[in-house]
Amino acid sequence: MKDETKIVVSGRNPKDHAGAVNTPVYHASTIIYPSLAAIRGTEKIPYTYGRRGTPTTSALQGAMNALEGADGTMLTPSGASAVSLAIMTAVSAGSHLLMVDSAYQPTRKLCDQLLTDYGVETEYYDPLIGGDIANLIRDNTTMIFMESPGSQTFEVQDVPAIVAAAQKAGVKTAIDNTWATPLNFRPLDFGVDFSILAATKYVVGHADALLGTVAAKGDNFTKLERVHGNIGFSVGPDDVFLALRGLRTMPTRMKQHRQAALDIAAWLEGMSFVRKVFYPALPGAPGHDLWQRDFTGAGGLFSVELEPCSEEQLAAMLDNMRLFGMGYSWGGFESLIVPCKIVRTAKPFETDGQMLRLNIGLEHVDDLKADLNEGFARAGYKT
User: Fold this and answer.
1) Is the pLDDT score of 1 beyond 90?
2) Which residue from 1, 80, 253, 367 has the least number of CB within 10 angstroms?
3) 243 and 110 co-located in one domain
4) Which of these three, 220, 248, 276, is where a domain ends?
5) Could you tell me where the beta strands, DSSP code E, fall in 235-316?
6) Structural domain harbouring 156
7) 28, part of any domain
8) Which of 201, 227, 248 corresponds to the end of one domain?
């Protein structure tokens, strides 16, 4: 069955809900047990407490399992909490964590602050290290964390090479796959242990709900489920319903995001004041060869490096955009633009230019180009 069909049919059964096409929203904390045996645990029942799941959460988990090729998927209140869950499934006091240097900023904060307080040592590694990551693995290394493409600078990691090194050493792997989604890259098929999504982005797709998912197989899922329960994560049913509704149209939206992003990225590449476009799906861009080898599609997020400009020029551009809004997160229907703030530990990212990150939404590309052209002119760039 093709992914587009899986997304439409998975995680719903109208016969179970009086013929309703979509699984209804179940608001529940207390679940009434049918018998003492059920209370004692000798009679198995599907739901025991609202935090542990309802038909609404099961519907999304079932759909994500089908898409990820997973034995199970756990839901969390945000993408950042999904990252935390995956890492906490594999680390403990005294552990050594290998974290990609191009990780999402909240992931770095988790490592540098909370995990440090808990006695976990984080070592950042060059995202382009590939199989040479084997040289960084220690006896106490318990996880290698990847994000591909990387946050803001979009380095594409050699996931198969990193996974091979990890498996040889008995080290768990996790990847933040939010940019591609399992539609365009299926981490579990590549041997990654934990596949993470900030479902806030492309799954929800409408900038109106926060949600995270972590998918896994076998014993990895067994431990993931236990840690999830021990932490006490719970997701509101209305947010789950919004994610289910967004998921049904995700393949159509992703195709449009990719097509528009490719168009605009190629257009930007031809401008004299554009130094580099960081979009792996663009032929000739950094990481394109690995993207072409491992991915079947792309998201609509990329960065661009411009010639230097002053803060005043940048404000003249960004403060007066008509269509591109300034805001964090991405993956919704609306186009966004923000200046990049790049932090590196393992290897400096050197530029004196102006880096901008663009989320290409579902507006017509001609209108988006016009908005960018006007902004560039306000900043003093000659288009």
Assistant:
1) no
2) 1
3) yes
4) 248
5) 274-278, 301-306
6) 3-248
7) yes
8) 248
Q: Which residue has the tokens 């529940």?
A: 28
Please, which residues bridge with residue 213 across strands?
75, 197
Point out the residues that are catalytic.
Answer: 51, 104, 176, 201
CB 209 within 8 A of CB 28: no
The pLDDT of 276-287, averaged and rounded, is 97
Distance CA 148, CA 84 (A): 17
CATH number, domain of 269, equals: 3.90.1150.10
Distance CA 120, CA 310 (A): 40
Supply the pLDDT for residue 146. 98
Q: Token digits for 28?
A: 């529940």
Average pLDDT value for residue range 65-76: 98
- Would the CA dihedral through 333, 13, 210, 75 be positive or negative? negative
pLDDT at 383 over 80: no
Q: Is 204 left (phi over 0), alpha (psi -120 to 50) or beta?
A: alpha
Q: Is residue 303 part of a domain?
A: yes
Q: How far is CA 160 from the centre of its chain?
A: 19
- Supply φ then ψ for residue 126, to 5 degrees: -60, 125
Answer whether residue 166 shows pLDDT above 80. yes
> Which amino acid is present at 203?
V
Residues 203-236: tens digit of each pLDDT: 999 999 999 999 999 999 999 999 999 999 999 9
- Looking at the structure of the chain, the number of domains it has is 2
Predicted TM-score (pTM) of the model is: 0.96
Together in a domain, 272 and 213 = no
Amino acid letter for position 243 = A
Please write the tens of the pLDDT for every residue from 20-39: 999 999 999 999 999 999 99
